[in-house]
Each structure stands twice: as C-alpha cells, then as structure tokens.
Structure of Porin:
Amino acid sequence: MLQYVIFASVFFASFIGMEFLARIMHKYLMHGFLWKLHEDHHKNEQKELEKNDLFGLIFAIIAIILIFKGLFSSNYVFLSIGLGMTGYGIAYFFIHDMIIHNRHLHLRSWGLRHEPFRTLILTHDVHHSEGKGNWGFLIAIKGIDKIPKNQEEKN
C-alpha cells in the first residue's frame, strides 16, 4: 500500500514540478536563446501548428522514454514521473492552448466566463502584451505573477 502512496506522490510532484520547470524554461530559454522557436507563440494570430509546439514534443519524448523505462524495468518511480509529465502535457494542451490561446477547440470565450480560467487568461494576456513576467502556463501565483485587477471581459 505504501508503494502506491509513493508512486502517487511522485506523479503529483512531477505534475506540479513541471509547472515550475516550465516557468524557468519559459523565462530563461524560450525568451532567451530559444526565442526563434517560441516567437510564433507571441503572434496575434495563433495557428494550429507552431514552432513553439516543439517544446511539447520534446517533453512528450522524454515522458515516453520514462514511461517505457518504468514499465520494462519495473521501476515505477520512472513510470510515475513519465505519467506526471504526460498529465501536465495534457493539461497544458487543454488549458494553455485551447482555453488561453483559443487554438484547436477554441474555448477562450468559455474560459473567460469561468474561474479560474478567466484569471489565467487575463494573467497570460499581460505576459503577451508586455513580453515579460507571468512565466507560468497553468497557475497564476499571487505575489509572483502580475494578476490584472481589471476583470472586464476581453476577447
């Protein structure tokens, strides 16, 4: 029973840890020397496929390797990390791409009507308008992120 608690803890720690790893990568790599891969993500018109999607592909490959390593070596810590990364990737795809950036299923207008998605959208809009700060993708953190006080509807 304890091993399942450990594996679940590793899964959730990996999921949450990915947000903080993504924040660091977003600030120092994506807005640094990897800007050429990330810049299309900052254009006003979002496309179904962007160079920026390569970051998700890289993390997906790492997660797949960890999942297979965990399965074939019976090392369920690797499996739990890979599944946590995969869970984060799925959440990123739905929340960041579909709700915040209105890609694929175009759920931004729905997100603007529902908290906490509304706060995430408006907080991320600050990042895109200022080109700095608010480095997170799935969580707006008071005191770290610039969360707009003006909650007027934006599209």
Observations:
- The CA atoms of residues 37 and 55 lie 8 Å apart.
